[in-house]
């Protein structure tokens, strides 16, 4: 009997130990599972918020890796990064487009990366990471204290695209985004941009506007920004300004270093004279074209009548190219209108 009891006790102990081990190992796997489910839940929650017109703001508390493109939203939206100790990351894993919609959108404290857009429609604002507005409806966008990096678009706006609305960028970094037009930013059809304290680094455009491409819009005010190492296959290594109809473009206290364009405008290409272009206390260093020649700013050609000029303060720098001689008299030193 004593031997039988001992046998039962041993078996009971072995079963208890086996149960504890079974609990211990799956506990770690369930932890992984829970984290995976949490990530999926975060993505699902963001999708649900974008699809619900009654939800106007979303606080992101964890990084998200997308499993599909985010849905289009037909109204205003705010995304606040609330990740502990760092900006929240949203990744399109080089496969999916990220934020698209109309209305007034706001982003803060986020990193949006590796988003991809293959839309080549002329009625599309562009913007693989953030695309606001379309050929029918306008939109506005404010991005602050964020990073937009490693995004690609087949057509325009590798990072951000805005159609017929206001774009505010404050204290942001645009890094290594790519498109045919506007590697980092595309501004279309009466769009207006206000850029402050931001960096545009190593963005590239196959055609024009390595960092920023503005067509029928205007970079109204760009202050204390740095454009470095951006490239364009043809014109506007950092910025391309085309067909600006309504608003004066002012770039103040900015730095352009080592930007390059294949044909013209190593840093900036000005392709119209319809509104004033002001360059106020701008630093120019080693901006070149395909031949290796220093070419900070190229002016022309333009199919618009000459109604204004391109002004520099305190002086017109070396490295300015005038494509058509008729534009020469309209390139002047003028500090009126420059911010203090």
TrEMBL record:
It is found in: Cell envelope; Cell outer membrane; Secreted. Keywords: Cell outer membrane, Membrane, Secreted, Signal. The keyword tRNA-binding does not apply. It holds the Pfam family Chlam_PMP. The keyword Signal applies. Its main location: other. PANTHER family: G PROTEIN-COUPLED RECEPTOR-RELATED, OUTER MEMBRANE PROTEIN PMPC-RELATED. This is Right handed beta helix domain-containing protein.
